[in-house]
Amino acid sequence: MLDRSCYPESMDKKKKQPKAEADINILAKSIVARATHEELLPEPTKENLPAVREKNTAAVALGRLGGLKGGKARAEKLSPKERKEIARKAAQIRWQK
């Protein structure tokens, strides 16, 4: 077995680099902060996030009601030729991927 003394010290210790940010905006902000020597703000947590507004249940129900019958009503209004054209365009887009 090889003695580890033949390897330079730098090979044993890896420098830890900061993790890359997933969001491009957060990455840009951190780059600007490092360049201008500003201190970064802490990550948002549940305690410092703004309060979420409650939804109006009547409005939600009304919107859902319209959404449930919207596609069916639209399909009934379309002529067979229009439906065929929409289906053709959708198939072309699927096959482009």
Structure characterization notes:
The chain is mostly helical and 97 residues long. It has a domain of 67 residues.
User: Number of helix segments?
Assistant: 4
Structural category = mainly alpha
Q: What is the averaged pLDDT score?
A: 78
Major β-sheet, in short? none
Concise synopsis of the structure shown:
By secondary structure, this protein is an all-alpha fold.
How would you describe this structure in keywords?
97 residues, mainly alpha, 4 helices, 57% helix, flat
Strand-helix topology:
Elements: H1 9-12, H2 24-36, H3 57-77, H4 80-96
